[in-house]
Amino acid sequence: MKSIYSVIKKPLFTEKGAHLKEAENKLLVEVDVGANKPEIKRAVEEIFKVKVDTVHTIKLPGKWKTFGRFKGKRPSRKKAVITLKKGEKLDFLEGL
């Protein structure tokens, strides 16, 4: 069992994420590649003290890149789109 603080890596501040937050009350975060939906839900509920309705995940495989004459692979990532229940609100930049 993973620590709830190792499941969520960082919030993603993108145009699509801002639109989802305003229009549909959804959050976009980057999570650990090995995390599953119940772990993500539990981590968000315990860390941010909000009620989560659903969790959808997206796996992004790492890309092969060429650096001069060397080839390397970027790491794989996993994103989660978290839908909050009605009446719940979470703002990552609230305290700033």
Task: Write a compact overview of the structure shown.
By secondary structure, the chain is an alpha+beta fold.
How would you describe what is shown here?
- By secondary structure, the chain is of the alpha+beta class.
- The chain has one domain (4-84): 2-Layer Sandwich (Alpha-Beta Plaits).
- The protein is 27% helix and 36% strand.
- It has three helices and six strands; from the N terminus they run αβαβαββββ.
- It has helices spanning 4-7, 15-24, 37-48; strands at 8-11, 26-31, 52-60, 64-67, 70-73, 77-84.
- The chain has a four-stranded antiparallel beta sheet with strand order 1-2-6-3.
- The protein is globular.
- It starts with a helix and ends in a 12-residue tail after the last strand.
- The relative contact order is 0.23.
- The mean pLDDT is 91.
Secondary-structure map with pairings?
Layout: H1 4-7, E1 8-11, H2 15-24, E2 26-31, H3 37-48, E3 52-60, E4 64-67, E5 70-73, E6 77-84
